Structures are given as C-alpha cells and as structure tokens.
C-alpha cells in the first residue's frame, strides 16, 4: 500500500505526516488568512477561505507533478511576474482590511455569511495561494524527498503524496477555523474586530514586502 505512494515504509510515512504538520503550523499567508477570515466572518467564512487555499494547493501539486513548476523555476521572468502578482494581491487584501478597520461592520454582518460572500472568501483563499510561486517551488522541492528512488510510477506517487498533503492540510485548517471561531465568540465588541482588521492589514502588507524581497 505504502509503495503506491512512493514511500518505502511506515517510518517514511510518519516523517511525511510530521513534516506536513510542521509546515502547516508555521505562520504564513495561508494560516494568517484562515485565522483573519474566521475572526472577521465566522466559521463558514474561514472554511470557505480554507477551501480556496486547498484548491490552490491542488493546482500547485498538479503543476509540480507535471513539471510546470520546474519550468517556472528555470524562467526567471515568469517567476518574477508571479511573485509581483502575488505581492500585489496581498497588498490589495491589506488595503481592504485597513478600510474595514476604519468603518464599523453593518449590523449582522459578523454573524451571517451570505452565499456571495462565501464565494468571495473561496476566491480570496485560492488567489492568495495560487499566486504564491514559493508554494509551487515548495511542492517541487518537498514532495520528491519522500518518493522512493525505486518507485515504479513516480508521477503517480507525486500525485498521491500531493493529495495526502492537501487532505492533511485541509484537516489542519478546519481545526484552526474551529479554534479561531471559539476565540471570535470572546471578542464580540466591534472595536475588537476593527483592531483585528488593522492588525491583519499590517501583517499582509509586511508579507507582501517580504514576498518580493526574499
């Protein structure tokens, strides 16, 4: 069974699970977006953003499995364009959160997430992830380390490990949404929500700058 995933044994499977968990728990754009969207719009908004993030991971996994990420890594101009596009999108998110910090939410907005807003959260999560070229390069560099050299079908093994990564990450983000949703109940005051939006705007702005300077 493990050979189908390209893993040599249970030890490698355990290492893969731990490595993915540590990567998920490392503060970054995906983690911060999931938390901020949950605190701003509740569990449904957080789960919608997490769904978009995982859809972006699927795109990156497929691109890495079929060599698109490797091609991008060898083409500096393509990497640069995607990097600047990702940074610009983060700045746009930061601007939106800064605007929300300076105006009160309409009554009930924090409690009910209409379908169109959930679709927007999915789109936000997807674009934030898929416009990050470093995620693509991460898939290209990380997953092959766990594929056994003797694996008969390495592309299939890559796809299976990529699916494993996406599923485990989805579980992690769902737990994160549950925890952030509980924390949200402890801060019902509008002023606190505005402060969180201001902090989120600062974080995403800093990440955008780091994005292009790393």
Overview in brief:
Helices cover 77% and strands 0% of the residues. It has helices at residues 10-25, 29-41, 43-65, 68-73, 76-101, 115-130, 133-142, 154-184, 190-213.
What does this structure look like?
- 77% of the residues lie in helices and 0% in strands.
- It has one domain.
- The radius of gyration is 18 Å and the shape is globular.
- α1 crosses α8, α2 packs antiparallel against α3 and α3 runs antiparallel to α8.
- The protein is mainly α and 214 residues long.
Q: How many angstroms does the end-to-end distance come to? A: 40 Å
Q: Give the helices and strands as they follow along the chain.
A: HHHHHHHHH
Low-confidence stretches: 106-112
Question: Please, what is the oligomeric state?
Answer: single chain
Return Rg in Å: 18 Å
With helices defined by DSSP (H or I, 4 residues minimum), what is the helix count?
Answer: 9
Q: Classify the secondary structure makeup into a structural class.
A: mainly alpha
What's the main sheet like?
none
Number of strands: 0
